[in-house]
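Study the following:
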Amino acid sequence: MIEKARRFAEEKHKDHKRLSGEPFITHPIEVARILTELEQDEPTICAALLHDTIEDAGVTVEEISRLFSPEIAELVSGVTKLGQLVYESKEERQAENFRKMFIAMGRDLRVIIIKLADRLHNMRTLQYLSPKRIRENALETREIYAPLAHRLGMWKLKWELEDLSFQYLEPEQFADINKKVAESRGSREEYINRFQAEVKALLDKVNIPSTIYGRAKHFYSIYQKMLARGIEFEEIYDLTAVRIIVDSVKECYAVLGIIHAAWKPIPGRFRDYIAVPKSNGYQSLHTTVVGEGGRPVEIQIRTKKMHRVAEYGIAAHWVYKEKTTDREFDLKMSWFRRLLENQSELKDAKDFMESLKIDLFTDEVFVYTPKGDVFQLTVGSTPVDFAYHVHTQVGHRVAGAKANGRIVPLDYKLQNGDIIDIITGKVDQPSLDWLNFVKSANARSRIKNWFKKHREEEYVAEKKIEETRPVEISKPHKRKIVLGIKVSGLENVSTRISKCCKPLPGDRIIGIVSSGKGVSVHKAACPTLARQKVNKEKLVEVEWDLSRDSFYPVEIEVEAFDRVGVFKDILSQISNTGTNVSSASVTTKRGSSAFLNIIVDVKNVEHLQKVTASIRSVSDVYDVKRAG
C-alpha cells in the first residue's frame, strides 16, 4: 500500500518542483521518512506520501478513498489547507486553517503527527523562501508547532523545531551558542563520561541492568535558560543531562536512592513524573546532584517504555496500541479535548490564535482536590482557573477558595502540591474582574461567554431598574422611631442620637445636656467627643431602655463589583433578615466598583451584625462597614 501511494504521488507531482529546484516528490517522501523513524502505521505513512495531492495536484478526497481507503482519505483531508476561500485578513485565514486542523485532530490525532512531520521538513529547507516568509514560518513554528509537539510529548520533533526557528529568528545568538557549545564539547563529554561510568559501576554492583548515556541540551533551551536566569553561557554547567534507562518502575526508584546516597542532591530539583505524569503522558524521575568539582549534573531515570513515550509522545500510542487501553489514552489526551472545547467557542480570529498560544505554550502546575484527585493546570493559574477546569458550573458559582485548608484570594497563584477546595454559591455569579487574573483560555472563554449571554440591552434594563430603586425604597412605610433611652436623674427629657457616631443598643453610651435641646446621646468612645473639651457638668449617665421595642436608623457603606443585579441581591439579602431599608443610594461605574449607602432600621448591634453578615454573603461584595 505504501509503495502504491508513493507511485501515485510521484505521478501526480511529476510536473512540480520545489523552490530548491528538486522534484516536489522529495518533500512527501521525506515527511514519510520522518514518520517511519517514529514507527508510525501504514495509513499514516500513506497519508504522508499523499498529503499534498489534494491541494497541489487536483486530486479529490473521494478518489483517495476509492484507490486507498476512507481512513487514509480522512487523514489526507485533515492535513490539507482550506483551499481558495476568500478571507478578510491573513490572520483570519491562518486561524481558520488551524481550526480545521484541530477539528480533524479531534477525529484522529494522526493528523497532527503528519502535520508536525510536514512542518519539520519544511523548516529543514526553509532557506529557499523569501526573508519575509522565512520569518513568518519560523515564528509560526515557534509559537504553535513546537509547543504543540511539546504538548503531544514528541520531544524529538519539538527540540529540532525550536532550534530551527531559533536559527532563523535570532541568527546571531544561535551562531554564538553553537560555537561555544562546540568549543566546550570535549571537556564536557569527558566529565559526563566519567560520571556515567561511576553510575554504571554502582548499578552493576547491585545487579540492576541499565542503559546510561548523556543527552546534550538543544540550543534554544540553553538560550531560554540564559534569558530566564540573566546569566552568561559560561555560567551554565548543566549542558548535558544523564539519562538512565532500566527495566521496571521499582528499579527507577532503587536507582534514585543509589544516586542520592552517592552524590548530594540539590534541594528543590527533584520531580516525580512517574507518580504524577505530565499531561502529555511523559514519565520520568528528575533529580540534580552535585558532581565532581561542585558541578551540578541533571539526571533522568525512566523505563524503556517511558523512554519511547518521552521521545515519540502521542505517536507512541500506535506503537503500543495493543498494550494501552483506550481509557489510558483518553486520560492522557483530556487536555486536548478541553483545548478543542475552548477553541470552538472563539469566533474572532485574533482571540482564537491568542487563546491557542496560551493553551499550548505554557508549563504546568499540579494541584489536588480534597479527595486526592490530581489536576494539571497552566503555571500561574488561580482558584478560578481550577474551578472552571473542574466544571463550568463550578466556575460560574465560585464564592471563595481554600488552599491547604486556609482561605486564599481568588487571584492566588496555585503552587505545586496545593490542595484546593472551592467554595460555591447557589447561583451563577461570575465576575468580569476575574478576566484580570485568570490564566487559562478555558476560564477566560467561559467567563466571556456567560456575559455575552446576558446581552447589553439586559444590562441597561437592569441598571435602569436599579437606579429607580433608591427612589422607591426611600418612601417606605414609615416606622416610628422611638428612642429607648433612660437618662439618670431626669424624667420626660427629650433625647436624640448624635449624628457623629450614631450609637446602637449594645454600644456603651454617654449623654450631653444641651440647653433647649435635651440630651444628645453619643458612644462613650465617640472620636468627636474625644476632640472636644466638654464641660463635665454637662455629662450625664444614660442607658438603653431595652424594655421598649425601639428601632434606630444606621447607615451602612458597601463596596461591590458593579455587575448586573448586585444592588438587587444586596437588598434581597437585607430583606431576608426582616430589616426595613429606609433609604439607599448607589454610585456606579461599569466594570468597576459600585458604592452603596444604605440606611436600615435596627434594634441593636447584634441586629446590625446580622444585616452586615447577610450583605457580605452576596457574591462580588468587597467591603461592608457601619458608616462613621
About this structure: The domain at 2-169 is CATH 1.10.3210.10 (Hypothetical protein af1432). The chain has five domains: 2-169, 182-322, 362-453, 456-478+551-626, 485-544.
